[in-house]
Amino acid sequence: MSMSIPEGWTDDMNIELPHGHTQSQVAEFIMSQLDQRIGYDTAIQQLISEFGIDDEDAYLAYDRTQGGIIRALTCQPANKPNKRKDPIAHHSFNVVWEELPKKHLFSQEKKAAGKWHRWYLERKS
């Protein structure tokens, strides 16, 4: 069962980047900002300055990076974003997924723990 996208909307979450920059670099930059607890407005301005993108793309990139982190923290591999349509979220998901510990010694399942889980809990409070 597939959902149709309303007219005028898109599921393509790519952003336009100047030559020489990648979606993964943007995700890494934002994850570093989040890890350093840099404030939202400052982070957006740094993102615009560093990558030469407009404010709408900066807001989208920031949102998608956090989206990938949150999806990984669900510990459900099926929540992995589509690499082609949502590359920034895909990258941040993979980074966090690799850092999540196994639920048990011999388990393939993951559990929410570590620095990104702490970051999430701080945001909630």
Low-confidence stretches: none
Q: Shape from CA axes?
A: globular
Structural class: mainly alpha
Largest sheet, described in full? none
Helix percentage: 40-55%
The count of helical stretches stands at 5
Count up the domains: 1
Order of helices and strands: HHHHH
Mean pLDDT comes to 90
Number of strands: 0
In whole angstroms, the N-to-C terminal distance is 37 Å
Alpha-carbon Rg, integer: 15 Å
Tell me the fraction of residues in β-strands, as a range.
under 5%
Report on this structure.
This protein has 125 residues and is an all-alpha fold. It has one domain (23-124). The chain has five helices and no strands. The protein has helices spanning 23-35, 40-51, 55-73, 87-99, 115-124. Helix 3 packs parallel to helix 4 (87-99). The longest helix has 19 residues, at 55-73. The protein is globular.
Which descriptors would you attach to this protein?
single chain; 125 residues; mainly alpha; 5 helices; 0% strand; globular
Topology, pairings included?
Elements: H1 23-35, H2 40-51, H3 55-73, H4 87-99, H5 115-124
Brief overview:
With about 120 residues, the chain is an all-alpha fold.
